[in-house]
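Cont'd.
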Amino acid sequence: MASPVLQIRDLKVTFSTPLGPLVAVRGIDLDVSAGEMTAVVGESGSGKSVSFLAAMGLLPKSATVEGSVVLDGQQLVGASAKVMRSIRGRLMSMIFQDPLSALNPVHRIGAQISEMLRAHQHMTEKAARSRAVELLEIVGIPQPGDRALQYPHEFSGGMRQRVVIAMAIANSPKVLIADEPTTALDVTVQAQILEVIQKVQAQFGTAVVLITHDLGVVARVCERVNVMYAGRVVERSGIHDVFDRPTHPYTRGLLASLPHAGADRLVPIVGFPPNMLKPPSGCAFRTRCLHAVDACGHGIPELQPIGESMTACVRAKEVGVST
Amino acid sequence: MLRYVLRRLAWAVPTLVLVTFLVYVALRIGTNPVESYKRINPRATPAKIQQYIDVNGLDPNYVRGYFRWLVNFVTLDWPRSIKGSREVWPQLKDALANTLRLGTAASAVGIVAGLMLGVFAALRPGGRRDVAVNTAAFVGISIPPYVSAILLQLLFAVYWSRWFGSTLFPTSGVYPPGQMGFDLGLMLKHMVLPTVVVAIQIIAVYSRYMRSSLLDVLSSEYMRTARSKGISERRVLFKHGLRNALIPVVTIAALDIGSIVGGLIITENIFSYPGMGKYFLSAFGEGDFPLLMPWMVIIVASILIFNLVADVSYAWLDPRIRLD
Amino acid sequence: MAFNRFVSHRAAVVSVFILATLVIFVALSPLTARYGVNDAVQAPPNYFLSPRANAWLGTDDIGRDLYSRLIYGVRVSLVIGLFSAIISVVIGCLVGAVAGFRGGRFDDIVMRITDLFLAFPFLVTLLVMRNMLGAISWLTPVIGKLSSVRFIIVLFSIFGWMGVARIVRGQVLALKEREFIEAARAVGASRWYIVRRHLLPNSIGPIMVALTFSVVSAIIGESTLAFFGYGPQAGDGATSLGILVGQAKGAVNTGFWWLALFPCLTLVTIALTINFIGDALRDATDPRMQKEE
């Protein structure tokens, strides 16, 4: 396995809210290796987006970030705004969920891409413009020369997401964070966008973090999977292990609620995600877990190796691999 | 775009005719020109009154009367004022020029200062300076112009000279009595207080517009995209934030400038500033119908024109809007 | 919840207290006023006395106590503000709800009329309408004489309903698209039932806000008219805030500052407190803010 280009250790994110501090991310460890596509899976509110917004330094001022995020040997937690600016868009960039609102409606596509280029490279406006057209071509936009002069509203949702990708890879970043890149799109378009992401990953050697709640998307493109629940990583495995031998009850629940051939019926996970202002003591999933015992309420479980996987469940060995 | 403007202008003509007709009827009923004539010329003989009615086309049938007025108006054969029997256009022209001068100065000062305060407040929502700007804006909105005008007059016309022995800002007119010819310095000095009074209101209103518009924009996704590019915070704010936040504000500003032509009535009257507002109030007080109608035409026309300006500037600023 | 959000608007809470004090003062005018509305404070010379023990806020040109007259004046102004606001809101709700619900021709016409009125400079429309209504003699028994308080209330109601109607119409149009209205329709609820059970309760916030702002605009409007001599007349010994502010105009060049300062301050205080309360009501009833909790 290649050495990690992005290394997250014990990351904690706390928001101060009128109702008290809300710990959205409760100490996670995560490695992202160069040239690999890593998935981060979880329900909304599990802290998956917040973790990477924290890494990008894009959280609002009400958030406190603790722990360590090392990108290419550089510590990002506590780095100055200036340093973070020079990293964002150059070493690490981000694709957002909703391409309809992620692009500025009053600027032309080409200008929005060349702004990204010129923010980090010494380029003339003209050179940046022609590079922007090349990038549009790479992400598969037909007639890129003409399209570069158009405004976002003249593009379809899928085309806009391609534009966002073109912008994100403009400076060949080491890490590309894709935050639910296909959620807002039609199913047919989703596959195309995933292909584009895979293509640019191969072409630029970028490490990609795919944040999603959709295990189906993960199955198609990722090598490694981190499952998050209530601000913790609860399982970390290779892609085949997750589907064939899930070790954490939550992962098993996610798989059971996924439609697939051969399933008689879908089994939803009972209950609701916990209130993050007052998370349950011990394992946060125990309130919804079919295997919960009293021991689950004592101490937050750490990741331990089970076979090829790492899992944060005290009963993982007893409950076993039972799918 | 050009076709759109031409079509809107073509539509403006029937609108103008309809609205001026309604105004004509309202004024004929409310400020009966024949009564005004009798009041101002108490010794007029019945024959003389009849002659006045004929010359001015004051037909008892309002529709016929309106069209006689319209023909006179379009052929520039405007009836003279009832009081003093003077030509209308020279007075109206001066009033319009004075109001445009005051309105432009006040709008420029007010809108620029208001926008700056709005941005200032929106950058730290809920912070101390936001609360300060917001409260000040509320006080500004709650002070009617005549209150601020009176208090300023009291301060500058009475107490300033009493305390310091000199006049800093004159409180009435465009020039001191007896002044002949053009004098920029004097003119500006006379405009200071009325400008302040009008600008207070504009600042209060526009700081709130700008604040809420910018807050809307700041919370939008494309601002996060802009930040994720690693460009400077200034660039994020000005290139991406302000450009978008200004779209609705500019549109409202165009509408407001259109209505300012007739909207400075209170301030102009208190400061005896000879603009459209003072013209209107004195003509209205006398029931001087021939003075009022052309004034109304200008007001309606400026509203219609600036409505068009608002729509065009909206389309110009926001590429999503298509005019056709 | 809405109440908690209202209370968290500190300026509004202070405003409620100030306004309540003012209203109590005015309502108890037989106790709180020191002199009758037209009584001199002392034998001549009694005019233009500066504030002193027997005239806390000074006296006017014929020796009347400004403090007592302010209490009587505010009483008239509050009555004008409150009544014209209530009438405006009732008419505005009806017209707006019907326009929004029925759409079509009626909606077009109503919206065109309000566009026209709202585009004109406020004072111009007010004065022209005032003279026109005053000149139609058969209306006089209904709406009162040109210079009466009743006439002023009618005049402001005519203007006030338009703003309210637009708000209610917008609300109705937005609610019409919502699922629970669709659902109510689907199960065959009558139109009136939907208006009563769904639309009105859901519009109550914006309507309350509109009500407070119409009170302010009527009070300021009355003072504006009075300032230029077009307001209610003081002939029968009554006064109003507008009349008192109007007198301030004459006080400017003579330097009787109390005649200008106190009526102006009272007017601004009333306008400011009601504006703050309206703002807090808007925050408190804004459905967008409810979602965040």
